Amino acid sequence: MNVLLVAKLSNQTLTENILSPLLKSSYVDHVYVLRDFPGDMIDGKVTYLSPEKVSESRIRHIRKVVAGVRYCSKYKIDVIIGVLNTPHGYIGKAIGAMMNIPYIHITIAGHREFWLGGKIRERVNLAVFRKARIITVTGQQTLAYLVSKGFDADRIVVLPNLPNQAFMDSNMQEEGERKYDIVSFSRIDKNKNIGLLLRAVSRIKNECSVKLIVAGDGEELDNLKRMAKELAIGEYIDFVGYISDLEDKLRIYRNSRIFVSCSKGEGFPVSLLEAMSCGCVPVVSNVGDIVDVIRHGTNGFVFNDVDSEMELAGCLMRLLSDKELVDKTSREARKIVESISVEGNAGIWDNVFARITARQ
């Protein structure tokens, strides 16, 4: 089976989360990746197709559809996969409709992919992707949302996100005392809501010893630094900026006891899986598919209020005042590596492709 994959994504996310399990599927002969730029050459079964760029984005996307139609004929494409709604999902869906080739849609940001942008955008997104042959989601909340919007449950497949294999293989036997009590690892924007964490730290700083590391950058970073000064918690926080190096990521997680996500909207962030794989105790907001893997009080903690810091502060105080609880929950969090794998996702793809070929 020859696959046309329409996606942007970073090279790391594309390789780890999409290509690696696809290439292990027994059905896949070759994957042709349609994107604006080439990527990592991880396998002889992957070819990057990059149409000539033009300055106007709308024209570029139209050219990509035209190029995709041509590539379908040239490379005898059997199935098209699009990742995220806009624009690559639309591009892949258009190519599939024009060439009468089955289209599979991958959602990786949860149900917010559909409704972010308002009601009109939501209705259009739902109408377009309801016609996909298969749609993959990262968890049960997104599945339930799509079913509530009229999607056929038989066409929806749960396909969990995956971290880099280095996190799955992380050797916790080498672990020593952890330098940081709390880690936040994400893009720093309003949706990530990291200011809530800073306010929670301000609440508990006089009750227990706390040291926070914030990794990431974005438009809210300067505001966070100002907030830290205003709350007089600068001495408790290390802002380390964007971290891309794999070993640096591993070192930060291994040096942290608790991973916090305060997002107002999420899919199934890879950072959560990375943190749990390294034994960080997850404390996460109850949004999107992020809570699919958290059993509250067993392998992590879930809080509901993303506007007031009191509930989050309570979770943090409970953990920071009880080392035995942290150690026990950390061991349970680490077990995430037993339930997700490249091979497991490859098996899911085998089932998807079997259903596609059975209908042809």
UniProtKB/TrEMBL annotation:
Per UniProt, the keywords (alphabetical) are:
Glycosyltransferase, Transferase
Tell me which positions the record assigns to the signal sequence: none
What's the Enzyme Commission number for this chain?
2.4.-.-
Q: Quote the InterPro entries the UniProt record gives.
A: Glyco_trans_1
Report the residue ranges that make up the Glycosyl transferase family domain in this protein.
174-335
Which principal EC class is assigned to this enzyme?
Answer: transferase
**Per its UniProt record, what Pfam families does this chain match?**
Glycos_transf_1
Q: What GO MF annotations does this protein's record show?
A: glycosyltransferase activity
Gene3D superfamilies of this UniProt entry?
A: Glycogen Phosphorylase B
Database matches in CDD domains: GT4_PimA-like
Question: What protein name is recorded for this chain?
Answer: Glycosyltransferase, group 1 family protein
